Amino acid sequence: MKKIISVLTISALLGQAAPVWAKKTAKPARSAAAQASAPAAASAASAPAADTGMVAAAAMQPPEIAATAYLVRDLQSGQTLAEKNTEQQIEPASLTKLMTAYLVFKALEEGKLKPDQKLPVSEKAWKTEGSRMFLKPHTEVSVQDLLRGLIVVSGNDASVALAEGLAGSEENFAKLMNEEAARLGMKHTFFENSTGLPGAKHLTTVSDLAILSAAMIRDLPPKYYEVYSYKSFTYNNITQENRNLLLFRDDSVDGLKTGHTSSAGYNLIATSKRNGRRVVSIVVGTASPEARATESSKLLNYALQGFDTPRLYQAGQVVEKVKIYKGAQNEAEVGFLDDAYITLPHGQEGRVKPVLETTQPVVAPIQAGQQLGVLKLTDGDKVLAEKPVVALKAVEEAGFFGRLWDSIVLWFKSMFSD
Predict the structure, then answer these.
(1) So what's the pLDDT on residue 377?
(2) Which of 42, 55, 120, 385 falls between 20 and 30 A from 307, CA-CA?
């Protein structure tokens, strides 16, 4: 196997002309503007995002963050801009309710539940300790109100009532939570309950919480997500405010979830949308409600003020053509199934060099969507980001004589390769 490296141009980047270095390339990629008519390849909205291991180069030093672990990520590019201890297992506390809400939202979308459907409040739900929306036992409450109690006021009673209503018991619901975590790729997460109350095995990581946060925004219609922006909720003549202080301080913040226990500290997943960019920050183990808001604000501002996220390629745009052996066609067009973005420090757009790496030989048959290489965005010797490129169209096998000829070609190549 031999790695093939091609240097491409990105004349589409921010609408600028191709930089000087691009004129020296042998195989320049066509710009997004020139390919406005390229077919868009669709991908399933519910599919978990691939972990491309992308970390952006820093425009400036990240801020000092007083938290056990933290992360800030641009959700368009998928790039992490600052992080600490993201793979360390931590207690999620009420950040757990993000998964609880995600499963209920999916059930609503699939028609398994209705917003106005009434669910019973059990003794267990009523007696659950911690924050609550003050449900009364042996009453029935709509799914819509229970969701608002779950999300806005972090009601543990609402969480248990929803879990029991959807799965029959909280124990069964926890199984659904773990199945969904596995599907999304949350490799270091285990849920024991729907509320986030402490449990010996009830653990996650900041990295896994980032996956779940992205899924909440990516997989579901905005009508569900908007509940996270509600500043208060009144139920049973009791009004409680959302504990996410950033909702009251920054108009661009529209979520996501707070959490706290004495052992976990004060946690916050915050999301902000400014100028078309969506950024998520996660802090865990801070010292107070004020601290989690302050540290989250520092991360969000660092990402949104210090970086830009231009589009590199449109969905379905041909980035390059890769040599194919034993195929009905000799080449496969490669690109991205979705619009491809990169997050860069301000002023560094013109320094970026795209390098496509493929491993030869690539042998037919090739499936549409099959990964055929990696596009690396570099600044000198530094790799800023990596994105997998895939075949945009299938390539079927050649006939008998075509396959025989390429087999002979590959044999000679193997004989004289290094």
Answers:
(1) 86
(2) 42
**DSSP-derived 3-state class of residue 216:** helix
State residue 15's pLDDT score: 39
Three-state secondary-structure class, residue 74? strand
- Collect all residues with Cβ–Cβ distance below 8 Å to 109 and sequence separation of at least 6: 220, 221, 224
Residue from 361, 208, 395, 355 nearest 284 by CA? 208
Pairing mode, strands 140-142 and 238-241: unpaired
Residue matched to tokens 């691009």: 22
What is the spatial distance between Cα 306 and Cα 294, in angstroms, rounded to a whole number?
18
Residue range 179-198: average pLDDT? 98
> Is the peptide bond prior to 289 cis by the omega test (within 30 degrees of 0)?
no
Per the CB < 8 A criterion, the answer to whether 158 and 152 are in contact is no
Q: Which residues of 244-253 are buried (b: 16+ CB within 10 A; e: fewer)?
A: bbbbeebeeb
What 8-state DSSP symbol labels residue 350? G
Cis link prior to 256 (omega < 30° from 0)?
A: yes
Q: Residue 8: pLDDT above 90? A: no
Cis before 361 (ω within 30): yes
**Over the stretch 133-184, which tens digit does the pLDDT of each residue have?**
999 999 999 999 999 999 999 999 999 999 999 999 999 999 999 999 999 9
- Which residues are known catalytic residues? 94, 97, 154
The pLDDT of residue 33: 32
Contact 373, 334 (CB under 8 A): yes
Instruction: Tokens for 221, please give them.
Output: 């219609």
Taking residues 10-14, what's their average pLDDT? 43
HSE-up (13 A, CA, CB side) for residue 185: 13
Mean pLDDT of 273-288: 96
Residue 378 CA to residue 248 CA, distance in Å, equals 39
